[in-house]
Amino acid sequence: MLNQSLISDRTHRMSVNAIREILKVVSQPGMISLAGGIPAPGSFPMDIIRELSRQVIDTYGSTAFQYGPTEGFAPLRHHLAERLIKKGIQTTPENVFISSGSQGALDAVGKVLISKGDKIGVESPTYLGAIQAFDPYEPEYVTLVTDEKGLVPESLETVLGRTSLKFIYLVPTFQNPSGRTLPMERRERIAAILTRYDVLLVEDDPYSDLRYDGEALKPLKALAPDHVLYIGTLSKVFAPGLRVGFYVPPALLEDWLVIVKQGVDLHTSTFNQALAAEYLSGNHLEQHLPHIIARYKPKKDAMLEALATFFPNDFTWSRPEGGMFVWVEGPPGYDMQALYQRGLKKSVAFVPGKYFFVDPQKGMETMRLNFTMANEATIHAAIHILSSLL
Amino acid sequence: MLNQSLISDRTHRMSVNAIREILKVVSQPGMISLAGGIPAPGSFPMDIIRELSRQVIDTYGSTAFQYGPTEGFAPLRHHLAERLIKKGIQTTPENVFISSGSQGALDAVGKVLISKGDKIGVESPTYLGAIQAFDPYEPEYVTLVTDEKGLVPESLETVLGRTSLKFIYLVPTFQNPSGRTLPMERRERIAAILTRYDVLLVEDDPYSDLRYDGEALKPLKALAPDHVLYIGTLSKVFAPGLRVGFYVPPALLEDWLVIVKQGVDLHTSTFNQALAAEYLSGNHLEQHLPHIIARYKPKKDAMLEALATFFPNDFTWSRPEGGMFVWVEGPPGYDMQALYQRGLKKSVAFVPGKYFFVDPQKGMETMRLNFTMANEATIHAAIHILSSLL
After folding, report:
1. Contact criterion met (CB below 8 Å) for B191 and B223
2. Which of A67, A176, A268 is the best residue to mutate to test the B interface, defined by the most B CB atoms within 10 Å of its own CB?
């Protein structure tokens, strides 16, 4: 019989995404889940999708179902470039590339850049999906100091002064899991550091369109264009099941990232790219986005209000202006995993924060709360229940 | 400025898929292309797709646009299992996994199995897309002897007697590029060898449904189920732009392949999987497949007839009973690359066969001819033109 000796060295490093396993547990009926990280299905523009499906078949015919270029469907690249320029990113359609979700871009980045043992700078906590994309390429992680305003620029400079990083991975806006956003002043300092140390930063930006309060901030890509690889997605503002993401790399990496994607999936679904192109071109996104925001903002406010009402003084939490998550920190030594188990018995689920740290010793006292799936009353009740279990 | 030192060791091994570059050259207007390897757009069931899009949105609603399980969309796994059982593969829906095209399965296989320097047995010539999927994981290739009936079982046994292969990669039916099919007797002998040497074989089977003559043959997976990882796709019988493939692995590999896919793209497009599920469930595939076959068979016959009419005696070619390709071999030392250049000047394109060999010294005298894209009269004319340039 075939046995485990068949498995490659790199694979033995990998493990099941713990959060996906948690999500299976908490998908039981009756469970109130603050655990997920997914958009509310009610936020999908179903009527628009129905109309656009018809329209794509009429407009593009069999072309929308044929093999397409690895770089992406030209009309989609065109409309994304227009949208990115409005965010301050200087680009052309030829510099925008389509990936199979932002996960596809993260995998390609790992494959093209990481040699075994290369060091990658990450936030603490950081996005688990990125770690899962990078791990197979056998990097080492260097934890950068993070506070309630995100990455501390001095920490980055200190690290770069003593070691060489292959790249830095950051979710600067409404981070998953912390909900934190890097302020403009720090963005400018980090951009200057990138240029000074000639180092690459991967800016993962899935949430910035989901802003409920405050003013939009320029992406790092706008500030240090030659040193930032920008990754975006339509999963949070259109539909995640379509798996359409995109990226704008420094010129050096363009060809390599395309070559790598050829070997992984040839190209992203042409039909789904055409749907996305029509969604952007018809101004549907701009018209639909306010509805998504109107749906999520009261949920975020309800969660912050319930935390302020019910949670004790020795717990702190982030106050995000957007995105999908609130990050809670208990007092030092607090065991959030135990709270998770008690919560399950009362049918309230969340994700223990420890899963978002590359150092397995860290984050025991933290939790990630999602506010996009439950309604306001349920969020209020769930936070009340959790507070009674603290 | 960032420079090439950023690129990982593995990436420097990779190169652009030469055939995709050729396809860019030959997509100019007026060019007769026998170079492609893609289905005729007229073979796509556009009316059915239009109806199924409506139906999926009505039946599944937002579920078809939400994140889904990495393993695949349950109704599609169910219908694929039914179909595979009819081919002699003993499986259940839980053992059928969805990939982003068969390319996605090939990438996952490479990632899970190949440690640097591992040996993989391949046909000669072999499918270029598989090599492109495996190369980033830095294997070495061992060329197995192939004749007009495909892999020679004795060659496999000789190699296994003296060296250890991580796995063997085979396209046993209507191979790309050669069009050759492994006869039943060889399948049985190879299955016995796999079991005796306890070695894994990856059976890539994109074309077996496109059979124009002769009787269907059992897949190797049906003969040595514990030692074969079977890969299929809906690209040739539904629509390639949807990027829906699938695989049935030995039990040992199931979990690893899913973990790896989580990091690469989370899952394949839910909408496209739902379209595929409806295509299979409504018997649409069984009803549409005869139309595809009726479209391609006369093209295949036209190409074989034109070759017999126009090509000289010292050229030989495969006589496939299905698939998309005819393989031509010139006399020893013949320079098919030079013919390719002369063909371009007369607006007739094909793919020089050398690109399908892992040994760069081999295949100079060979060419791959595709018969699915041009019509019969054009195929006749193109073969006539090529013969005049020999």
Report:
1. yes
2. A67
